[in-house]
Amino acid sequence: MRLLLLHGVFFLQCVRFSQQQFPRVCATAEALLSKECCPVWEGDGSACGASSGRGFCRDVEVSDLPNGLNYPFSGLDDRERWPLVFYNRTCQCASNYMGFNCGECQFGLFGANCGERRESVRRNVFHLSAAERRKLISYLNLAKHTISQDYVIATGTYREMNNGSTPLFSDVSTYDVFVWMHYYVSRNALLGGPGNVWTDVDFAHWAPAFSAVAPCVPAALGARYPEADRGL
Q1: 122 FRET partner, CA 20 to 30 A, in 36, 72, 202, 217?
Q2: In the predicted model, what is the mean pLDDT of the chain?
Q3: Which stretch of DSSP H or E encloses residue 97?
Q4: Do the beta carbons of residue 117 and residue 106 sit within 8 Å?
Protein backbone atom coordinates (compact mmCIF):
# COMPACT_ATOMS: atom_id res chain seq x y z
CA MET A 1 0.00 0.00 0.00
CA ARG A 2 1.18 3.49 -0.72
CA LEU A 3 0.72 4.42 2.91
CA LEU A 4 3.59 2.11 3.76
CA LEU A 5 6.11 4.72 2.71
CA LEU A 6 6.90 6.00 6.18
CA HIS A 7 9.37 3.68 7.83
CA GLY A 8 11.91 4.49 10.43
CA VAL A 9 15.29 6.03 10.11
CA PHE A 10 17.86 4.10 8.10
CA PHE A 11 21.64 4.41 8.49
CA LEU A 12 23.14 7.22 10.48
CA GLN A 13 23.04 9.77 7.69
CA CYS A 14 19.24 9.73 7.37
CA VAL A 15 17.58 12.75 8.91
CA ARG A 16 14.36 12.82 6.96
CA PHE A 17 11.87 10.00 6.61
CA SER A 18 13.38 7.13 4.66
CA GLN A 19 11.81 4.64 2.31
CA GLN A 20 13.24 1.13 2.43
CA GLN A 21 10.88 -0.67 0.10
CA PHE A 22 10.73 -1.06 -3.65
CA PRO A 23 7.72 0.24 -5.59
CA ARG A 24 6.55 -2.42 -8.02
CA VAL A 25 6.74 0.01 -10.94
CA CYS A 26 10.43 0.64 -10.19
CA ALA A 27 11.43 -3.02 -9.80
CA THR A 28 12.30 -3.35 -13.47
CA ALA A 29 15.58 -3.59 -15.35
CA GLU A 30 14.81 -0.28 -17.05
CA ALA A 31 14.35 1.55 -13.75
CA LEU A 32 17.35 -0.10 -12.10
CA LEU A 33 19.70 0.53 -15.03
CA SER A 34 18.60 4.16 -15.29
CA LYS A 35 18.68 4.45 -11.47
CA GLU A 36 15.50 6.49 -11.67
CA CYS A 37 12.27 5.85 -9.76
CA CYS A 38 9.87 8.63 -10.70
CA PRO A 39 6.53 6.93 -11.44
CA VAL A 40 3.59 8.66 -13.07
CA TRP A 41 0.77 9.81 -10.80
CA GLU A 42 -2.45 8.66 -12.43
CA GLY A 43 -4.25 11.79 -11.26
CA ASP A 44 -2.62 13.97 -13.93
CA GLY A 45 -0.48 11.58 -15.96
CA SER A 46 2.81 13.26 -15.05
CA ALA A 47 5.85 11.87 -13.26
CA CYS A 48 5.54 12.50 -9.52
CA GLY A 49 2.37 14.52 -10.14
CA ALA A 50 4.54 17.41 -11.30
CA SER A 51 1.77 18.95 -13.42
CA SER A 52 -0.32 19.33 -10.27
CA GLY A 53 2.55 20.58 -8.13
CA ARG A 54 2.62 17.45 -6.03
CA GLY A 55 6.30 16.73 -6.56
CA PHE A 56 9.17 16.56 -8.98
CA CYS A 57 11.73 14.01 -10.15
CA ARG A 58 15.03 15.09 -8.64
CA ASP A 59 18.46 13.85 -7.74
CA VAL A 60 18.61 12.10 -4.38
CA GLU A 61 20.61 13.98 -1.78
CA VAL A 62 22.24 12.04 1.04
CA SER A 63 24.44 13.18 3.89
CA ASP A 64 28.20 12.90 3.72
CA LEU A 65 28.41 12.18 7.45
CA PRO A 66 30.53 9.10 8.17
CA ASN A 67 29.07 5.84 9.41
CA GLY A 68 29.35 4.98 13.09
CA LEU A 69 32.28 3.07 14.55
CA ASN A 70 30.25 -0.14 14.49
CA TYR A 71 30.41 -0.17 10.70
CA PRO A 72 34.00 0.42 9.51
CA PHE A 73 33.27 -0.22 5.81
CA SER A 74 32.29 1.76 2.74
CA GLY A 75 30.77 0.80 -0.58
CA LEU A 76 30.04 -2.84 0.31
CA ASP A 77 26.46 -3.09 1.55
CA ASP A 78 23.50 -2.07 -0.63
CA ARG A 79 22.02 -0.03 2.20
CA GLU A 80 24.92 2.41 2.44
CA ARG A 81 23.97 5.95 1.40
CA TRP A 82 20.48 4.69 0.71
CA PRO A 83 19.04 4.49 -1.91
CA LEU A 84 21.93 5.42 -4.22
CA VAL A 85 22.91 1.84 -5.03
CA PHE A 86 19.50 1.33 -6.65
CA TYR A 87 18.22 4.81 -7.50
CA ASN A 88 19.76 8.27 -7.68
CA ARG A 89 16.62 10.07 -8.88
CA THR A 90 13.29 9.75 -7.10
CA CYS A 91 10.12 11.75 -6.52
CA GLN A 92 10.61 14.60 -4.08
CA CYS A 93 7.14 15.50 -2.85
CA ALA A 94 5.75 18.88 -1.83
CA SER A 95 4.94 19.37 1.85
CA ASN A 96 1.38 18.02 1.80
CA TYR A 97 2.12 14.93 -0.29
CA MET A 98 3.96 11.64 0.06
CA GLY A 99 4.36 8.31 -1.67
CA PHE A 100 6.66 6.96 -4.35
CA ASN A 101 4.74 9.02 -6.95
CA CYS A 102 3.51 11.76 -4.56
CA GLY A 103 0.02 10.36 -4.99
CA GLU A 104 -0.86 10.17 -1.29
CA CYS A 105 -1.46 12.72 1.44
CA GLN A 106 0.99 13.17 4.27
CA PHE A 107 -0.18 11.43 7.43
CA GLY A 108 -2.88 13.49 9.11
CA LEU A 109 -3.90 15.25 5.88
CA PHE A 110 -6.91 14.43 3.73
CA GLY A 111 -8.87 15.73 0.75
CA ALA A 112 -8.31 15.98 -2.99
CA ASN A 113 -5.42 18.39 -2.49
CA CYS A 114 -4.37 17.06 0.91
CA GLY A 115 -5.29 20.33 2.58
CA GLU A 116 -7.66 19.03 5.25
CA ARG A 117 -6.02 18.25 8.57
CA ARG A 118 -7.50 15.70 10.96
CA GLU A 119 -6.02 14.57 14.24
CA SER A 120 -5.74 10.88 14.96
CA VAL A 121 -5.20 9.33 18.36
CA ARG A 122 -3.21 6.13 18.77
CA ARG A 123 -5.20 4.07 21.22
CA ASN A 124 -4.17 1.37 23.63
CA VAL A 125 -5.35 -1.98 22.26
CA PHE A 126 -6.48 -3.01 25.75
CA HIS A 127 -8.87 -0.07 25.79
CA LEU A 128 -10.67 -1.08 22.60
CA SER A 129 -14.17 -2.45 22.67
CA ALA A 130 -14.81 -6.04 21.58
CA ALA A 131 -16.09 -4.80 18.21
CA GLU A 132 -13.03 -2.62 17.72
CA ARG A 133 -10.70 -5.49 18.55
CA ARG A 134 -12.47 -7.69 16.01
CA LYS A 135 -12.04 -4.98 13.40
CA LEU A 136 -8.33 -4.67 14.19
CA ILE A 137 -7.83 -8.44 13.92
CA SER A 138 -9.77 -8.43 10.65
CA TYR A 139 -7.43 -5.80 9.23
CA LEU A 140 -4.37 -7.79 10.27
CA ASN A 141 -5.76 -11.03 8.85
CA LEU A 142 -6.60 -9.28 5.60
CA ALA A 143 -3.08 -7.84 5.47
CA LYS A 144 -1.61 -11.34 5.76
CA HIS A 145 -3.65 -12.62 2.82
CA THR A 146 -3.52 -9.62 0.47
CA ILE A 147 -0.68 -9.37 -2.04
CA SER A 148 0.69 -5.84 -2.00
CA GLN A 149 -0.31 -4.05 -5.17
CA ASP A 150 2.31 -1.34 -4.76
CA TYR A 151 5.44 -2.96 -3.35
CA VAL A 152 7.71 -5.94 -3.89
CA ILE A 153 10.70 -7.13 -1.87
CA ALA A 154 14.26 -7.67 -3.04
CA THR A 155 15.38 -11.30 -3.01
CA GLY A 156 18.97 -10.58 -4.00
CA THR A 157 21.65 -7.93 -3.68
CA TYR A 158 22.34 -5.38 -6.39
CA ARG A 159 25.43 -7.37 -7.38
CA GLU A 160 23.35 -10.54 -7.63
CA MET A 161 20.98 -8.59 -9.87
CA ASN A 162 23.92 -8.05 -12.25
CA ASN A 163 23.92 -4.37 -11.33
CA GLY A 164 20.24 -4.06 -12.20
CA SER A 165 20.03 -5.94 -15.48
CA THR A 166 18.47 -9.01 -13.83
CA PRO A 167 15.93 -7.81 -11.24
CA LEU A 168 15.37 -10.14 -8.28
CA PHE A 169 12.11 -9.24 -6.56
CA SER A 170 9.16 -11.14 -5.19
CA ASP A 171 5.48 -10.54 -4.44
CA VAL A 172 4.52 -10.64 -0.77
CA SER A 173 1.51 -9.81 1.35
CA THR A 174 0.97 -6.33 2.74
CA TYR A 175 1.78 -7.67 6.21
CA ASP A 176 5.04 -9.18 5.01
CA VAL A 177 6.10 -5.90 3.40
CA PHE A 178 6.24 -4.48 6.93
CA VAL A 179 8.05 -7.56 8.23
CA TRP A 180 10.58 -7.39 5.40
CA MET A 181 11.25 -3.66 5.85
CA HIS A 182 12.27 -4.26 9.45
CA TYR A 183 14.39 -7.25 8.44
CA TYR A 184 16.09 -5.31 5.64
CA VAL A 185 17.08 -2.50 7.99
CA SER A 186 18.25 -4.72 10.86
CA ARG A 187 19.91 -7.65 9.09
CA ASN A 188 23.66 -8.22 9.09
CA ALA A 189 25.74 -6.24 6.62
CA LEU A 190 26.64 -8.22 3.50
CA LEU A 191 30.25 -7.57 2.53
CA GLY A 192 30.37 -9.74 -0.58
CA GLY A 193 31.04 -13.44 -1.03
CA PRO A 194 29.60 -16.50 0.73
CA GLY A 195 29.42 -16.08 4.50
CA ASN A 196 31.16 -12.70 4.43
CA VAL A 197 28.91 -10.73 6.76
CA TRP A 198 29.37 -8.13 9.47
CA THR A 199 27.24 -8.89 12.53
CA ASP A 200 28.29 -6.12 14.89
CA VAL A 201 25.71 -3.62 13.72
CA ASP A 202 21.94 -3.13 13.82
CA PHE A 203 20.86 -0.14 11.79
CA ALA A 204 17.23 -0.52 12.84
CA HIS A 205 17.73 -0.09 16.57
CA TRP A 206 21.16 1.51 16.97
CA ALA A 207 20.47 4.47 14.68
CA PRO A 208 19.49 7.90 16.12
CA ALA A 209 15.78 7.05 15.88
CA PHE A 210 13.54 4.17 15.04
CA SER A 211 9.87 4.14 14.05
CA ALA A 212 7.74 1.02 14.07
CA VAL A 213 5.36 0.78 11.12
CA ALA A 214 2.99 -2.01 12.14
CA PRO A 215 0.26 0.40 13.41
CA CYS A 216 -0.05 1.70 9.84
CA VAL A 217 -1.27 -1.65 8.50
CA PRO A 218 -4.94 -1.23 9.50
CA ALA A 219 -5.04 2.34 8.19
CA ALA A 220 -3.44 1.37 4.90
CA LEU A 221 -5.83 -1.52 4.36
CA GLY A 222 -8.91 0.38 5.46
CA ALA A 223 -8.28 3.04 2.84
CA ARG A 224 -8.29 0.49 0.03
CA TYR A 225 -10.28 -2.47 1.39
CA PRO A 226 -13.40 -1.23 3.18
CA GLU A 227 -14.65 -4.81 3.44
CA ALA A 228 -12.30 -5.16 6.40
CA ASP A 229 -14.63 -2.91 8.33
CA ARG A 230 -17.28 -5.57 8.04
CA GLY A 231 -15.13 -8.06 9.92
CA LEU A 232 -14.24 -10.23 6.90
Answers
A1: 202
A2: 82
A3: strand 97-98
A4: no
Q: Report the candidate in 3, 229, 4 with the shortest Cα–Cα distance to residue 138.
A: 229
Q: Is the pLDDT of residue 213 over 60?
A: no
25: CB partners within 8 A, 6+ apart: 31, 37, 39, 100, 101
Where exactly are the structural domains of the chain? 2-230
Measured at the CA of 225, the angle between CA 231 and CA 210, to 5 degrees, comes to: 95
Question: For the whole model, what pTM was predicted?
Answer: 0.77
Could you give the CA distance from residue 63 to residue 120 in angstroms, rounded to a whole number? Answer: 32
Helices 216-224, 130-144: axis angle to 10 degrees equals 80
Task: Give the span between the Cα atoms of 160 and 166, in whole angstroms.
Answer: 8
Q: DSSP character for 67? A: P
Residue 115's pLDDT is what?
A: 93
